Amino acid sequence: MYALIILTGLLAFVSSKPCDTEGSTNNELLLSLNKELLYSVEGQQGLPNPSVHLALRLSDSHNLMKELDHRNKLKTDLHNHLANSLSNRQPVTGLLGLYALALKASCHDLNTITFSVKEKVETLLTHLKRQMEEEKEHIAYSQRPLTNYYQYSLGVLALCVSGIRVNPHVSNKLIKAVEHGHIRNGNVECVDTLAMAGMALQCVKEAGSHVQNAAELNTALKKIKQKLLAAQRADGHIGNEFSTGLAVQALLAMGSHVEECASSMEAMRSDARRKTYHNPMAISQILPALQQKSYLQIKSKECHNEDDSLVLEPREPTPVSPSQTKVALRVEVKAFKRVATYSVDVPEGSSLLEALELLQRKNVGFTFEKESSLWGHFLSVVNGQQARQQDRRYWHLSSDGSALSQGINDYKIEAAQKITITNTVY
Ligand code: B12
User: Fold this and answer.
1) Fewer CB within 10 Å of terminal CB in the chain, N or C?
2) When comparing pLDDT for 186 and 51, which is higher?
3) 150 CB within 6 A, ligand 1
């Protein structure tokens, strides 16, 4: 009898954690990702990252002192940056949304967060609502948001999890974009954006505020789920390595069982073991998914009796000396039917950024500029030509004809190749 009870208990435990097949090895992996995020906060250059804060707060393990420090940095450094952007009337929908989500995940009272713009003091959520209205107006006359649908979705999600009723006209624009297949980057469907839209619309559905168009809302959610499942590759990734985390979060939020995501979870764990995720932004998007959580859970997050066991061992910086082996790199710049080609030998394992800096120093006519973002350096100007967001253009990166899935910071030159940088419309 006792044996039967123990066996039933064990079976229930195993079946309630279907993805946790390797038990402690998985926990170690999650802990190491969690620690990487905390190290990134310690050694942070530039603005504190609200997406990293969000992931730290959603995690099962915490270092509450370091998280509090980081929250304070968000409330000063990121806050000031946002205040400046708002004063200059720059659209900052996504960043405002992430800031609100990060503070909500710390159980911070959002009504106490205010910005003073042109001597008028208004709360963060009032500003976010206004940004969403401006985005909506922009969609109405130009069929696209001021920023993009990823940020539009972040805005809806942030308002919704903060308990604000999202204007049905605002959520409707997102529903229509899904219905008409407008959630894309150029001519390909954008998995990351579909995932963010899925979480945003699921939140709206659960809030019960979208009663008039409930059928349309359900159809959009169904369509997003179908598209995410259709984007799953044979190796388990949904889209690519970097969209799988958000896609799994969205599927879980939309009611998929953890078992249905098992192969995607395994794909991310394999990526993590081979250190694919070293960019803190990438870790911040996959860690909640690997812990079977989604951004929707911030809505009901409570901050008492939290674990406080995460300890960071001091880490000596490992000096990396450039490799003696050189690889031949060709760089092709394509802009409006003009093509310029350059050659440079770079130490094996250099980042593309280091390679471009080397090429620039050769004074052969190649120049570039970069802008910082949450993902690192974004290539913005090449040979004096800016691919501007206002014109919906950017410098697209590819290697031997295949689009890069990482930016200039993270992509490493391991073998001879041709990098093509193309001025592209999106
Ligand atoms: C929209 C988008 C774009 C748009 C951004 C412009 C716009 N206004 O819409 C465009 C089409 C220009 C773009 C370009 C690229 N993108 Co992109 N992009 C996104 C997406 C879907 C949302 C970004 C966003 O708005 N975030 C919200 C705001 C609040 O954060 P932010 O940091 O302030 O946002 C800015 C930066 O993220 C920047 N940006 C966008 N993409 C990238 C990529 C890199 C590497 C960097 C450094 C910056 C950057 O543009 C954003 C708007 O200004 C993300 C998805 C995701 N999971 O994050 C992918 C994503 C960030 N992009 C990605 C990639 C690979 C690229 C490209 C390198 C593709 C290529 N082969 O050329 C290029 C960048 C090349 C360059 N010049 O440096 C990857 C990055 C993965 C990684 N490990 O680095 C992501 C995660 C998509 C994916 N799953 O593969 N992207």
Assistant:
1) N
2) 51
3) yes
- Summarize the confidence of residues 387-399 as an average pLDDT: 89
Instruction: For residue 307, give both structure tokens.
Output: 């674990």
User: Does residue 8 belong to any structural domain of this protein?
Assistant: no
- Alpha-carbon distance 285 to 51, whole Å? 8
Name the token pair of 341.
């080609």
Range of the domain at 369: 326-425
Q: What was the pLDDT predicted at 200?
A: 98
Mutate to test the pocket of ligand 1, among 139, 378, 388, 391 (most ligand atoms within 8 A of CB): 378
Report the DSSP beta bridge partners of residue 424: 394
Residues 408 and 273 in one domain: no
Q: Give the per-residue pLDDT at 43.
A: 81
Strand partners, 419: 331, 399
Domain-terminating residue out of 232, 265, 300: 300
**Ligand 1 atom 86: residue of nearest CA:** 242
Distance 25 CA to ligand 1 centre (A): 32
44 falls within a domain = yes
255 φ, ψ (degrees, to nearest 5) = 100, 5
More confident residue, 324 or 151: 151
379 lines ligand 1 (CB under 6 A): yes
Quote the CA–CA distance of 422 and 368 in Å, as a whole number: 13
Residues 42, 131 share a domain: yes
Residues 296 and 347 in one domain: no
Q: Is the pLDDT of residue 318 over 50?
A: yes
222 with 342, same domain?
A: no
Backbone angles phi, psi at 361, to 5 degrees: -70, -20
Q: Is residue 132 classed exposed, middle or buried when 0-12, 13-18 and 19+ CB atoms within 10 A define those classes?
A: buried
- Are 130 and 38 in the same domain? yes
Residues 289 and 384 in one domain: no
Can you tell me the mean pLDDT for 349-353? 97
Q: Is 404 in the pocket of ligand 1 (CB under 6 A)?
A: yes
At 250, list the tokens.
Answer: 């969205």
Q: Is the CB of 98 under 6 A from ligand 1?
A: yes
Give residue 6's pLDDT: 53
Average pLDDT rounded to a whole number, residues 44-61: 95
309 assigned to some structural domain:
no
For 46: left if phi > 0, alpha if psi spans -120 to 50, otherwise beta; the answer is left
Instruction: Please check whether residue 250 is in contact with residue 293, taking contact to mean a CB–CB distance below 8 angstroms.
Output: no
Looking at the structure, tell me whether residues 132 and 38 fall in a common domain. Answer: yes
| CA of residue 51 to ligand 1 center, whole Å | 14
Tokens of 37: 């995020």
Alpha carbon of 77 to ligand 1 centroid (Å): 22
Report the alpha-carbon distance of residue 298 to residue 290 in Å, rounded: 16
